[in-house]
Every structure is written in C-alpha cells, then in structure tokens.
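Entry 12.
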Amino acid sequence: MGKFEFTLATADDDAELREVLSSTPMMGQISVSFAREPNFFDATPVDGKLVQIVVGRDVEQGRIVGMGSRTAGPRYVNDQRTSVGYLGGLRLRPQYRGQGGLIARGYLLLRQLHADQVAPYYLTTIASDNVIALKTIAAGRAGLPTYHPLGDYITISLNPAAASRIDRGSSQILTRLATIDDREQIITFLNTHGPRRQFFPAYHTADLFEEKGWLQGLQPHDVMLAFRDDQLVGTWGAWDQSRFKQMVIHSYDRWLTLARPAYNVIAEVRKRATLPSPGSVLAARYGAILVVAENDAEICRRLIGAMSRELLERRDRLVFLGMHAGDPLLSIPRTVGGREYVTRLYLVFWPDQVPDLAELTQRVPYLELGCL
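Predicted 3D structure (tokens):
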C-alpha cells in the first residue's frame, strides 16, 4: 500500500474534489453522480454553519483518493437549540477500495476534529443497498464511532402532474406563493412548528432568500404558503439547486438503455420526467421546509397540490421529497408518489461520549433532503 496523508481540503483542491465526485457514481439501475459545479465550495452553505472536508491523499501519486465531510449547525433537540453534526459525502476512488486502513485513518482525523466540541454527536445516512458501508463503517468496528440506528429515511419521487390532483375538492385553506416580505413570518413559523420533529434546523432570517444562507438558492416564488383565516399554517418549497449542485446521469442498465427511447415518448405525453442521456444533468427539484401546523393532513395536501400546479406551469417534471419513515405526514405524498429510495438514518458518536439515547429518540427525526 502506498503512503497516504489525511488533511482538511482547501480552496486549492476545488478541481480535484469535483473530479472525485464525478469518478465515484452511485451504481444501480440508474447510476448517478452528484456534482458540485462550477465550484465545489459554492455549495457548502447548504451543508451547515461549520463545514470541513476531510481528504485522503496518495502522496506518491500526488492526488486525492477519497473524501468525506464533517458539518454542524443549530438544530432543535426536544425544543432546545443544539449544535448537531452531520457526517456525509464519503467517496473513495474505486481503485483504492479495499486497501486496509484508509477508512479508519480518515475517521482518526475526524476524531481529532471532534475535540473542538462543536457538536456532541452527528447524524448520517447510508443507502439501504450499500452493503459495503453497512458492513464496515456502520458495523461498530474497532476505531470507528458507534452508529445507532434511527430508522429509515424515505425519498419519494413526485411528478407534479400526478401530485397536482392531491387536493381536489373544497377547502378552507388558501394558498399563495411567498414574497420577500413574508420572510420574517416564515422563519417564525418554521421555528415554532418545525421543532415538533427532532433535529429540525434552527433557521435564522439570513438562511432564507439569501445568497449564502442555509437554504441558498430557494427563492420566494419557490415557496408555497398555506393560510387559514389569515394565519400561516403551512409551508412547502420546491428547491432548485442546479446552480451549485447537480445530479448527473452516469449510466443505465441494459434494460433501461433499450427502453429509454420509448419510455421518453410516453413520459412526454403524460408530462412526466424523461430519462436524459448519460452525462446529462437530471432536471429535478428538492422538496424543502414541509412544515404543517398540527400535522394537519388537509394543509399538507393543499400545499403539495398548489405547488405542483405551479411547477406544471413552469414545465418542471420531478421533485424529490425526503421524510422519515415514521413521519405522520408521509402517507400523504405516498398517495401520489412514484419510486421510493430508502436510506438508513444513524446517530453517530464515539463510545466514550454516549448521548442520552432515550431523550434523542422521543420525536420523529427531520432532515432537509437538499442539505444532505
């Protein structure tokens, strides 16, 4: 095995970090890579308030072989604002996989960084079909932190044409798109009703409708508001991140390669998302800040229906919505949703700093899909 060193990335590593992302696609029936073009660090505001990118370098080859991120930001834990970390973005070039000790050495640096006490523990997600990761980093091997399961996180693909019909019938709930003047009201609403979900982000005014906020890129016309008797009772955004983050189609399996032309013809007729050619960016938005007062199902349906009709007019065909499997509102988008993707949510901590698990598991967790 060659000589490797592990450090924090700097702006000088931008081009190589983006190259690592493009060379490590997630394989499957539809294989995709997650890009951060045109600059890797332009996307970091959505990752958290603290963002550290750990990189492993092959000293002899003079290149980055793998990377991972440690981020942290204020979240609500049992109604209290607490700094919570997130571990993500783990990538390792294929030719270096299986070389013993690389992952452990990367976690050794993470353990050293953890000494700053910015966050007492971390959240992370692992795809349910990522057998290698589940058998290694999540299996409690010596030297690695503990991964405590918190259930499944479900990502649903929503087609606006289908979702636009979810709220048929009369309703006392009125909806409209947000304006910049609604910002303070939205932030107050999110920080009042969002904490019913564990780890809900503690948003500040500067996080919304700002160039470098936590919700960077989410514009007022991308957020649908719901009102009852002039009282704000729900929010839902359709977040376009293509300016700084992209999902790129890497390849299709043999069956989809053959079926793609015919599928695209049918998809156009039905106003559904088509399957772009390999190398193309998948045009998709991320559902964001789905917060509903009192878990009211009618409000949720109205928000999804109204935003979907708006997206249809804009010719948007695909929205990804992420929710915890235990969320009481999950059944609503599922009635009009398409394919689902399952990841496993974990609480990560070092064995000598075990948090109060009973306290942390009292409420259904919340993660903002566009920030993962």
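Annotation: The radius of gyration is 21 Å. The chain has a mean pLDDT of 93.
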